[in-house]
Amino acid sequence: AIRNRKADVAMLYSHTTRSYDSFYLNSLYNAYTATLYNGVKPFYLIEDQAERLQEFDTLIVPEASHVKRKVFDEVLKFVRNGGKVVMIGEDCLSYDESNQPMPQDALEEIRKSATVIEANSVHGEYFSAVKDTVGKDLEKIFRDNGKIKVELKDASTGAKIENTEISWAEYSGGYVLNLCSYDWDTVKNAVIEIDGKRVEAMTDLIELEELGSTVTLNPYTPIMLKIESNRLVLNESNGNIGVTAVFDDETAYGSDAMLYLCVYDEQGAMKKVVPEEKRIVDKETSFSTQIALNDIPSGGYVKAFLWRKDTMVPLCSSKIYYRKE
Fold first, then answer.
1. Which helix or strand (DSSP H or E) is residue 32 part of?
2. How far apart are CA 140 and CA 117, in angstroms?
3. Using CA atoms, how far apart are residues 120 and 229, in angstroms rounded to an integer?
4. Taking the alpha carbons of 14, 18, 23, 26 in that order, is the dihedral positive or negative?
5. What pLDDT sits at residue 128?
6. pLDDT band for position 124 (50/70/90)?
7. Strand 301-308's sheet: what is its strand order?
């Protein structure tokens, strides 16, 4: 799902500039990582596929001073069609593949409509000074243009988590996230916000663990999370298992739902099913249906299903919510 999600922005990779400037890849790398750290998915636009630029609404040009003429023409067309261009460095798109100046009137037209970020590159260093400034500038541009959907914040301070790759996609009514921190010496405790709303529960798909609202990011250790907009919470009280449905997705409000609370033995054979019909009216809906712990065989488990009554489409994904040892 993450791999197949359409990229949010195009990022120009200019082999022509690389031929003229051996340090060009520094700027490209820094812009690429700054984009990923903001949860924005970039698409590498190579010069031989310049026509694909028209598939996007935003183009990032990281210090590409020399480009093929057909690339320049596509960027001009893109701008005239309302596309947004972000130039990192003041000399972007200045010369063609023969080191000849581009048409000044057309270049000025592109620059007037573009957002230009001062590069401040330090050539000769693998990580140039452009890194810190570009990250902040790109974050503001992405935020102003509605590109930032998923954010990581420090669980204690609320500050933005830095130097952490965020890849995400909508999946099965919720989201899947792939996160990786690139700070060697720091363990980060983070909360996740999607569209400005804090995520209250998630599943670690690697460790197969249910997490609360906080996730621990260890250095250079990828973590894959599943976040469900709608979920079931099973509560154990007074020798019984009860169910509460939690809906972050407000489109579910007003739906008539069917809950099926099922008991299975250790071999997976269903031993009991208890249904209940109820209307979903707000974020949390509690059901009166309960399963007695004594009704669950040793080694057996409880599984819950919640479906929309009229279409029998799942409102929450089904999974094992309680297992008796």
1. helix 24-37
2. 11
3. 43
4. positive
5. 43
6. very low
7. 270-279, 256-264, 301-308, 314-323
Q: How far does Cα 307 stand from its chain's mean position?
A: 27
- Which pair of structure tokens corresponds to residue 155? 């669980």
Nearest to 230 by CA among 260, 255, 264: 255
Crossing angle of helices 69-80 and 104-113, rounded to 10°: 50
Q: What is the pLDDT of residue 163?
A: 94
Q: Residue 187, class by beta-carbon neighbours within 10 Å (0-12 exposed, 13-18 middle, 19+ buried)?
A: exposed
Average pLDDT, the chain: 90
Task: Report residue 11 as tokens.
Answer: 């990022």
Degrees (nearest 5) of the Cα angle 12, 76, 5? 40
**pLDDT above 90 for 258:** yes
Query: pLDDT tens digits for 94-115?
Result: 999 999 999 999 999 999 999 9
User: Alpha-carbon distance 30 to 27, whole Å?
Assistant: 5
Rounded to an integer, what is the distance from CA 76 to the centroid of its chain? 30
Instruction: Provide the token pair at 77.
Output: 């067309």
DSSP state string for 95-144: B-TTSPBPPHHHHHHHHHHSEEE-----TTSSS-THHHHHHHHHHHHHHH
Look up residue 63 and give its DSSP letter.
S
Q: In terms of C-beta density within 10 A (0-12 exposed, 13-18 middle, 19 or more buried), how is residue 204 classed?
A: middle
Which uninterrupted H or E stretch holds 325? none
Distance between CA atoms of residues 129 and 122, nearest Å:
6
Long-range contacts of 299-303 (CB under 8 A, 24+ apart): 299/265, 299/266, 299/324, 299/325, 300/263, 300/264, 300/265, 300/266, 300/271, 300/324, 301/263, 301/264, 302/234, 302/241, 302/261, 302/262, 302/263, 302/264, 303/262, 303/264
Q: Give the integer Cα–Cα distance in Å for 125 and 122.
A: 6
State CA 10 to chain mean position distance. Answer: 16
User: Where is mean pLDDT largest: 31-40, 116-125, 242-251?
Assistant: 31-40
pTM of the model: 0.77
How many CB atoms lie under 10 A from the CB of residue 222? 13
